[in-house]
Amino acid sequence: MKRFDPYLQEVLRSAYDAIAENLAIIVMRAAYSEIVRESLDYSTALCDRNGLTLAQGVTTPMHLGSFHDAIKNLIATVGESAADGDVFIFNDPFLAAGQHLPDIYVVKPLFHQGQIEGWATTLAHHSDVGGIVPGSNALGAREVFQEGLRLPVLPLMRRGERVSEVWAIIEANVRTPDLVRGDLEAQLAACNNCEREFAELVERYGIETIRASSDELHNHADRLTRAEFAALPDGVYTFEDHLDGLGDEPSPILLTVKLTVAGDEVTVDWTGSSSQVEGGVNTTLPFTKACSYAALRSILTVDVPNCQGFTRPIRVIAPAGSVLNANFPAPTGARGVTGYRMIDCIFGALAQVVPDRVAADSSGGSSLPTFSGFYDGSHFVFCETLMGTSGATLAHDGQEGVAHIGSNQANVPIELVEARYPLRIEEYSLVADSGGSGKTRGGLALRRSYRVLKQGMSLNIRSDKRTFPPHGLFGGSEGGASHTVIRSGEREIVVPQMPLSPLPLAEGDLVVHTMAGGGGWGNPFERAPEEVLEDVIDARVSVDAARHEYGVVVDSDVLDTAATEDLRRAQKKGSA
């Protein structure tokens, strides 16, 4: 075979990346809801004629790895019937290889001379799609029918004309029709821009060149990934993690992974994980694959293209009927927390393989507080993907105010929350002593407090890592556990990690949510005393914690070197 020109390939790869990024930028700029525009809970990709991802927008890895399954199903469904100007919409995990009902795909086939040569692909988490809980993240749902509007593959546009019946059905079944319609319009605008830019690329280079380049890009990513895996030590590496569970008396949900490195391939086997549950934390296989891909992608040391070829050396196994490959009609609305825990679990196994490339456990991905009620004459739903902190690494302390690697998402600005909703943010802070102690310290927990300013509101929240706090690595301590309370008058009500139904709120109530802190790395008594002193001065570590966790004595913001040496010497002698 004639080798594809590598210089031209880099030019085209950059063009694919730019098209996918523009998809993402347009969605963000045009979106109506905070969950899309501010939290960035959406994803975009340019796919080739076969439905394989060519390039991704910088958004949510837990979405992106499942795009191929969704587009493959779309191709099988529409077959030869798709026409120029068509746009398709779907969300159902079982009928359309979706993820959960709030994540709505809007996809446009890209034609050239009557043939489909690509797919403009967008997915956005919508503020509401109906169901028994405002925001449609029903932890207590027992089946998918309770979670909201199910959309199989449907035409949103047909030959450039809106299918008004589909738009009308959607608007009639959601609590926030203006936001949902606005976000769909943003996705549609992004697809139209992608169509124009892809057509310009084809016109400039020719369709045969684009086809050959696409095939070579997948092969190139495959080769690079196999070379990386081949450099890892062969073996079987296992790890277990847990979700805290559902409701007032939660039963832990087990996730167990067996990571097998054999030559230039890796198998991720989830056999042994809990069976599917009667609650919204189940996942489908495409989502489980996406989370597995995201974790393995993060340890690669070379610039592998963000295309489907990267996944070829990876095999993902999850038994049907398990919480990670649930059977119909299992609910999946709150499946995001399970995705984060899958990635955390794989990192636990990878720490045995590449300890210098993996962090200690993090705050566990986003909490998802959702406030709802009536305001200014209409139903409102405010939800945000509240991100927290990372665990420590071999090289540095954990970081605060960062997204989980599974999702490049962000917290909604205080000013926007207070301007649009009957809420006041009274605290947005870092919590001292919440980072796991270690030679490098875990990031501090984030706390956010919401004052309720109107009667008749409710709270639904998805959080985790209270019963099973973030673990440390190689002698590092656990991070602080998460916690949520409602302060109502003289009462303080402890909120379950994953309540089965929304909790009523009264005007004046204060909802205080504290995320988990990151785990520590290495022996805390090996941390430089000067670094502990700096943490004390910065109010990240208390004087008592400095003494008991690190063996460092601080008095009036001054390091007592002699007392520290004595304390650490006694600790070392006691552990000998």
Structural summary, described in words:
The chain is an alpha+beta fold. The chain has 3 domains: about 5-220, no CATH class; about 360-520, no CATH class; about 530-575, no CATH class. It has 13 helices and 22 strands. The chain has a 7-stranded antiparallel beta sheet, with helices on both faces. A 5-stranded antiparallel beta sheet has the order 14-15-20-17-18, covered by helices on one side. The protein has a 4-stranded mixed beta sheet with strand order 8-9-10-11. Strand 1 (about 40-50) and strand 2 form a beta hairpin. The longest helix has 29 residues, at about 175-205. It is globular and about 80 Å long. The mean pLDDT is about 95.
Mind telling me the C-alpha Rg?
A: 24 Å
Largest sheet properties: 7 strands, antiparallel
Count of individual helical segments: 13
Domains (count): 3
Strand order of the largest sheet: 2-1-5-4-3-6-7
Shape: globular
Q: Which structural class is indicated by helix and strand composition?
A: alpha+beta
Terminal CA distance? 64 Å
SS elements, strand count: 22
Strand content: 15-25%
